[in-house]
C-alpha cells in the first residue's frame, strides 16, 4: 500500500540533515588514496575534534583511504581497516619525498639499464653495419670481377665465332684449292702426255728427216759415180 505524504508537510528532523550531509560528502570523496604530509606524528581520532580519543598515531607518508570530508576534518581508513578522523591539512595527494626519491631512483636505475641496453644495441648495430659494409665491398669486388670475366668471355666468344667463321672460309678456300690443284694436276698430266708426244713426234721427224737426207745424199753420190764412169 502506497502512502502519500504532502510535500509541504514533510519536515526533516535535526538528526536527518547531518546524516544526509554526511552521506553526500562520503559519496563524493569515497576511496581516494592520500598520504600524510611531512610533519610530526599525526593523531587519528574517533571524531572531529581534539576532545575525541586518539586511536592511532600516523607517521609521515602513511597511506590512507579518504572516506569523507567535513569542515576541516577528513574521515580516513588505514590499511589495517581501522577508521578515524584527522585534519585535512595533514593530507596530500603527493607521495612522501622518500617514496618519490625511491621511485625516481628506481626509474633512474631502469633508465640506466635501458640506456645500457640501447648502447649495446647501438654497438651491435654499428658492428653489424661495419660487417655489412665489408661484405658489400667484397660483393661489389666479386661483381666487378664477374663482369670483367663476362666481358672477357663475350670477347672470347666473339673471337671463337670469328675464328670458326675464318676456319670455315679457310676450309672452303682449301677445298677450292684442292679442286684447282686436282684440275692442275690433271692438266699437267695432259701436258706431260702432250709433251712426250711432241718429243716423240719431233724425234720421229728428225729420224725421218735424217733418212730422207740420207736417201737424197745417197742418190746424189750414185749420180756422181755414174757421171764419173
Polypeptide structure, described:
The strands form two sheets. The protein has a five-stranded antiparallel beta sheet with strand order 6-5-4-1-7. It has a two-stranded antiparallel sheet with strand order 2-3. It is rod-shaped. The relative contact order is 0.05. The chain has a domain at 9-94: SH3 type barrels, CATH 2.30.30.40. The protein is α+β, with helices and mostly antiparallel strands and 229 residues long. Helices cover 63% and strands 15% of the residues.
Briefly, what is this?
This protein is an alpha+beta fold and 229 residues long.
CATH level-4 homologous superfamily of the domain at 9-94: SH3 Domains
- By CATH, the topology of the domain at 9-94 is SH3 type barrels
Specify Rg, calculated over alpha carbons: 70 Å
Q: How is the quaternary structure best described?
A: single chain
**How would you classify the helix and strand content by structural class?**
alpha+beta
Please count the beta strands (DSSP E, at least 2 residues each).
7
Percent helix, as a range, is 55-70%
Q: Give a short account of the largest sheet.
A: 5 strands, antiparallel
Order of helices and strands: HEEEEEEEH
What's the level 1 CATH class of the domain at 9-94?
Mainly Beta
Unreliable stretches (pLDDT < 50, length at least 5) are: 1-29
* Number of separate helices: 2
**Assigned CATH architecture of the domain at 9-94:** Roll
Question: Largest sheet, order of strands side by side?
Answer: 6-5-4-1-7
Secondary-structure map with pairings?
Elements: H1 16-28, E1 32-36, E2 42-45, E3 54-58, E4 63-70, E5 73-77, E6 83-87, E7 91-92, H2 97-228
Antiparallel strand pairs: 1-4, 1-7, 2-3, 4-5, 5-6
